[in-house]
Amino acid sequence: MEYIDNLPSMDLMRSEKMMFAQLIIPVESAHRAVSYLGELGLLQFRDLNDDKSPFQRTFVNQQVKRCAEMSRKLRFFKDQIHKAGLMPSPHPASQPDIDLEELEIRLAEHEHELIEMNTNSEKLQQTYNELLEFKMVLQKAGDFLVPSRSHSAAQETELDENVYTNNDYADSASLLEQEMQPGSSNESGVKFISGIICKSKGLRFERMLFRTTRGNMLFNQAPADDQIVDPASNEMVEKTVFVVFFSGEQARKKVLKICEAFGASCYPVPEDATKRRQITREVLSRLSELETTLEAGLRHRDTALTSIGFQLRSGPFLGEKEKAIYDMLNMLNFDVTKKCLVGEGWCPIFAKTKIQEALQRATFDSNSQVGIIFHVMDSVELPPTYFRTNHFTNAYQEIVDAYGVAKYQEANPAVYTIVTFPFLFAVMFGDWGHGICLLLGALFLIAREKRLGSQKLGSFMEMLFGGRYVLLMMSLFSIYCGLIYNEFFSVPFHIFGSSAYKCRDATCSDARSVGLIKDRDTYPFGVDPSWRGSRSELPFLNSLKMKMSILFGVAQMNLGILLSYFNARYFSNSLDIRYQFVPQMIFLNSLFGYLSLLIIIKWCSGSKADLYHVMIYMFLSPFEDLGENKLFWGQGVLQVILLLLALIAVPWMLFPKPFILRRLHTERFQGRTYGILGTSDMYNDEEPDSARQSHNEDFNFSEVFVHQMIHSIEFVLGAVSNTASYLRLWALSLAHSELSTVFYEKVLLLAWGYDNFIIRLVGLAVFAFATAFILLMMETLSAFLHALRLHWVEFQNKFYSGDGYKFRPFSFAALTDDDE
To answer: What is the 3 state secondary structure string of 105-131?
Structure first.
């Protein structure tokens, strides 16, 4: 054990050792000190003003509001650039220093300029839309007008019978009034109202008109030739031109009200064709002028946005940086003299020197006469968990953290997950042809790591890129397991020499007795290719993969229990070693460790013993003679001993620990001892930011006993269910192999049997599609999720509590990642 204690510590095995520090910062150097600490990114501040509302904090009414307002303006510019379809300018390698006040002035000027341009553009676009609608109404409504009406009726114009909904038509309306003098409005006759409405409202509009006028109207409509740009959503809208014929002043008022309610735009259309042509020419002339003006305005706006984006490319980060600094300053507390700020926080021990250097630099740069005091303090709080990871190990750490963040200094499963996770995936996905496809995808992502890392990716692509090294390991292990299974898109190859078997009959598939006969030495690596297609293929592979799954499962569960020993030893908890680790090892290996031993002996000896019978009657008839199922001398006696050990291990886990804890608690408060009993649960049920209690609370024996009973029952039942759960390795491996065989034999080979190029091409396309989307996507996701479950439930529940909280230092790099 001394040798184990003297081994050098691993970076990922346990989290970094943390210390609790207090900072006393003069006011004149506070801003610069916090800024330097943000660049360093190794100190997690603690909120000392947690009892104050956001409006009661020191810097909330001044700098924080200013930074929030600047952030709003920057988001406004970013949205406008995105809406205009312009690419944002890349961040330069060396960004020029911009003063906060100068940035604020620039933002205000640019915002005012851009809002004014947007307002003018919207007005011009609205005028253009109305003229375009007027043009289409003039063209379509003229076809509905009856040319044989009387001269007196023709004298009446539609100008008097329409309502202008926009003041921009004042010039156009006055022109029409000059050209079209209406006749007497007292004359009775059929009148009409023309306009345009959204196509989606046309049916309801017509139905409402019919019901309101009780059918005393004639409704004609025609689809508009051009779509109209909606200024609000900037989308194209389809519209319909309509003409409503009616009689009477009451009907006219009703029609106008309905048009207003449905948002229809009404336009004057003269009955005289000459006047319509004249007005149409004037409208077309104004449309041409407006198009030129709009294009010039858009070019000017795009130029202005490009200039704004170039000038303020460092603005978003500067604004977020300043806001983050003042947010951190709001977490500090003024001392009684109001001349210093007091802060507290966690940092790794290795970062102490770097933090002190940054604070000294802040004191020098701010010309402060008083230095910043960095004082290490004792704390009863549970420290945060911090692992230093790189591009390769980060993805595996994220897999573990998704289950739960490790408790401080707890054994980290990510160290073993780096190997066991891709390996268990490959056991279910074993095919070196499919593995090569995954390898090519992983190498592509790694080769373009810098380019893809600087781009904004979709959710799926971002997840795939983040796990590129996991995909790399999964593909390498899939190639390895595929070589063991001897499957290349389900096709076996004689890679490592000739087969050791030959067929007894003409073909292996038609063999009636043994099927395969051993002819030479065993195939040197992996499954012999002669098993493929033989009558014994499925029984052989099923037996092999099922037993192999049990061996892998028992080995990984033993590793989990062994890690619980190292946890207990690290936290100096002898109770967990004696009354948790030892009985758990005895129980698991007395049953399923013994089963694994029988599997290995059967493989080595070539025995035909029925292991199902051995394990079942080990419980039902432990003293019965094994007969032909006996694998070694003394097996029956060993089974009885192991069964008794498993039975003893259950009360061993359940009873001693609660009673010993009660006795120690009683002795502690009788003055016999004052030491705090260290247990693996000493930090459990504590809030991350709250101080731990001094363990003087009342000892609830019933609660401790029930907790221990639940834990013991969970382990006993879990030993059986978890071992059975590892059989998913066998099931998914078999499913993947059989699916590959079906696609190869029933699609590709079947199509290749036809002497027709088109049929072969279709068969090849279907095979490629099935391989890519079913085997390489769905099966990959399925195997990934099952491997994830095996690690989270079957492996980590043996030793991993996962009730810690992450170390989240104040860092400007995190702001950049969030912005991207």
So the answer is: HHHHHHHHHHHHHHHHHHHHHHHHHHH
What pairs with residue 374 in β-bridges? Answer: 23
Nearest-5° angle of CA 279, CA 251, CA 186? 70
Angle at 263 between CA 259 and CA 269, to 5 degrees: 55
Terminal CA-CA length for the chain: 49
Q: Considering the entire predicted model, what is its pTM?
A: 0.73
764: pLDDT confidence band, cut at 50, 70 and 90? Answer: very high
Q: Are strands 190-198 and 236-237 parallel, antiparallel or unpaired?
A: unpaired
Q: What is the pLDDT of residues 171-220, one digit of tens each?
A: 444 443 443 333 333 344 678 888 888 888 888 888 888 888 888 888 88
In whole angstroms, give the CA distance from residue 557 to residue 584: 10
Q: How far apart are CA 800 and CA 786, in angstroms?
A: 19
Show the beta-strand stretches assigned E in 176-251. 190-198, 218-223, 228-229, 236-237, 239-247
Q: Which helix (H) or strand (E) holds 394?
A: helix 391-403
Predicted local confidence at residue 472, as pLDDT: 95
Residue whose pair of structure tokens reads 């009703």 in the numeric block: 254
Mean pLDDT of 345-368: 92
To which H or E segment does residue 20 belong?
strand 18-26
Cα(74)–Cα(66) distance, integer angstroms: 12
The whole-angstrom distance between residue 569's C-alpha and the CA centroid of its chain comes to: 37
Residue 813: which region, alpha, beta or left (left: phi > 0; alpha: psi -120 to 50)?
alpha
Digit-coded pLDDT (tens) for 615-672: 988 888 888 888 888 888 888 899 999 999 999 999 999 999 999 998 888 887 765 4
Exposed, middle or buried: residue 766 (CB in 10 Å: 0-12, 13-18, 19+)?
A: middle
Report the alpha-carbon distance of residue 529 to residue 500 in Å, rounded: 9
Look at residue 353 and tell me whether its pLDDT is greater than 80: yes
- Cα separation values, 436 from 432, 472, 489, 532, 742, Å: 6, 10, 10, 21, 20
Instruction: Give 756-807 as a DSSP string.
Output: -HHHHHHHHHHHHHIIIIIIIIIHHHHHHHHHHHIIIIIIGGGT------B-
Token pair belonging to 88? 């944002």
Hey, what are 348's tokens?
A: 């790794």
Q: Report how far residue 345's alpha carbon sits from residue 43's, in angstroms, rounded to the nearest whole number.
A: 6
Position 577 scores a pLDDT of: 93
pLDDT at 520: 78
